[in-house]
């Protein structure tokens, strides 16, 4: 019997820069790693590439001035309301700066006690103790400070994000509500800055009578030969790369993953799966932050990664063994049946059937990290093997 199941390797590559041939770098780096470390590549191994290096090679950037111009084209230069931004210097500060440069008045509506990905603007216990009802109560900054004061800071950054976002200009006004329509008391030109709930928020704004409604996915989304763009996600998934530039979420990645799959097959004879991944979909137990600040975990992947796992729960079937025959044989028989008409859904109980790309992308993100490991490529082996595979 094989003694090792799933194995994950962070693959080191050269430092990747604008204009590099990413496909060749990934293929060469994987082949070099498996040769030097005596790893046998197999069918259905998975190669993950972090989205950051894809965008870098594509030169998929926009400048502060690009964002300012687009905001003014859509909203004019008088006022704008920013609804439900996440609390992030990296993800949102430059977008806010552009809004303050584009418009005379900027209104920010914060959700509370946290943004949609779990960055807290206030301790939930303080909200409970104040007897504020977060489902119905809306208010301005003066009442917020009266209720909660200035003592709360972000768990990891130590920043008061209210003060930080206000520091971008005297014309920035802040409000607090979990009802997006509250912003319409102050402006009817709104930019929905939430990520995963953006379509619902846009719909509520239109129903509420807003005059101009866009989301971050609508900014920098049109094809442009002079600047970066992302037709699907616009500014969603963007990252600050300097004081005046944002790196956008990658585009046109399907041809990249398919080309890597094709080259690996040509060289090794094995058909691997390939994906581009961003933030993993997991939650920090201390700060309560849900990591997924990108619009999706994986924007591009080969066809073999479509769908969800089909598994049986080993604990369930072994604990319900009728004590007849040999347990090992009983378990393997039921595992084999998962790919047949005899498959019983209840035997998969508790196996968390999320999308394969969400599970694998989270594994890749945890492996590569966002620091100095130098492993923007990840090789996963044995993920699709089960207990019957020798």
Write up this protein:
With 390 residues, the chain is an alpha/beta fold. It has three domains: 1-53 and 250-307 and 357-390, CofE-like (60s Ribosomal Protein L30, Chain: A), CATH 3.30.1330.100; 61-247, 3-Layer(aba) Sandwich (Rossmann fold); 310-353, no CATH class. It has helices at 22-36, 51-58, 64-75, 93-102, 124-130, 141-148, 161-166, 198-208, 254-268, 314-319, 327-336, 356-368, and strands at residues 7-11, 46-50, 61-63, 79-83, 105-110, 139-140, 172-176, 189-192, 212-215, 239-242, 245-247, 273-277, 300-301, 377-381. A six-stranded mixed beta sheet has the order 6-7-5-4-8-9, sandwiched between helices. Strands 1-14-2-12-13 form a five-stranded mixed beta sheet, with helices on both faces. It has a three-stranded antiparallel beta sheet with strand order 3-11-10. Strand 10 (239-242) and strand 11 (245-247) form a beta hairpin. Helix 1 packs parallel to helix 9 (254-268) and helix 3 (64-75) crosses helix 4. The longest helix has 15 residues, at 22-36. It is globular, with a radius of gyration of 24 Å. The mean pLDDT is 91.
Helix share, percent = 25-40%
Instruction: Please tell me what the overall shape is.
Output: globular
End-to-end C-alpha gap: 5 Å
Name of the CATH class of the largest domain: Alpha Beta
Calculate Rg over CA atoms. 24 Å
Beta-strand residue percentage: 5-15%
GO molecular function: coenzyme F420-0:L-glutamate ligase activity
Pfam families: F420_ligase
Keywords: Ligase
Domain Coenzyme F420:L-glutamate ligase-like: 10-382
């Amino acid at each position: 019997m094989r003694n090792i199941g799933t194995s994950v390797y962070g693959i080191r590559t050269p430092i990747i820069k604008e204009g590099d041939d990413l496909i060749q770098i990934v293929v060469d780096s994987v082949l070099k790693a498996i040769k030097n470390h005596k790893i046998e590549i197999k069918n259905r191994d998975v190669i993950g590439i972090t989205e950051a290096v894809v965008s870098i090679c594509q030169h998929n950037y926009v400048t502060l001035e690009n964002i300012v111009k687009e905001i003014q084209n859509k909203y004019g230069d008088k006022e704008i309301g920013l609804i439900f931004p996440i609390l992030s210097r990296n993800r949102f500060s430059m977008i806010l700066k552009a809004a303050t440069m584009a418009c005379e008045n900027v209104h920010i509506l914060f959700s509370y006690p946290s943004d949609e990905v779990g960055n807290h603007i206030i301790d939930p216990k303080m909200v409970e103790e104040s007897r504020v009802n977060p489902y119905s109560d809306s208010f301005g900054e003066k009442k917020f400070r009266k209720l909660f004061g200035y003592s709360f800071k972000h768990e990891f950054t130590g920043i008061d994000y209210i003060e930080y976002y206000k520091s971008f200009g005297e014309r920035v006004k802040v409000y607090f509500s979990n009802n997006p329509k509250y912003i319409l008391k102050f402006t009817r030109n709104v930019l929905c800055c939430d990520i995963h709930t953006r379509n619902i928020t846009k719909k509520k704004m239109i129903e509420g009578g807003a005059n101009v409604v866009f989301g971050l996915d609508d900014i920098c989304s049109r094809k442009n030969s002079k600047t970066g763009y992302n037709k699907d996600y616009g500014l969603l998934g963007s990252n600050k790369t300097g004081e005046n530039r944002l790196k956008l979420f990658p585009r046109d990645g399907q041809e990249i993953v398919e080309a890597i799959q094709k080259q690996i097959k040509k060289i090794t004879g094995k058909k691997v799966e390939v994906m581009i991944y961003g933030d993993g979909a997991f939650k920090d137990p201390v700060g309560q932050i849900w990591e997924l600040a990108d619009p999706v975990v994986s924007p591009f992947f080969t066809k073999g990664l479509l769908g969800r796992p089909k598994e049986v729960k080993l604990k369930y079937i072994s604990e319900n063994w009728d004590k007849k025959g040999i347990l090992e044989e009983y378990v393997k028989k039921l595992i084999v049946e998962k790919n047949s008409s005899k498959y019983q859904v209840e035997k998969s109980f508790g196996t968390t059937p999320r999308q394969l790309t969400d599970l694998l992308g989270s594994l890749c993100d945890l492996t590569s990290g966002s620091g100095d490991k130098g492993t923007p490529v990840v090789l996963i082996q044995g993920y699709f093997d089960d207990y019957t595979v020798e």
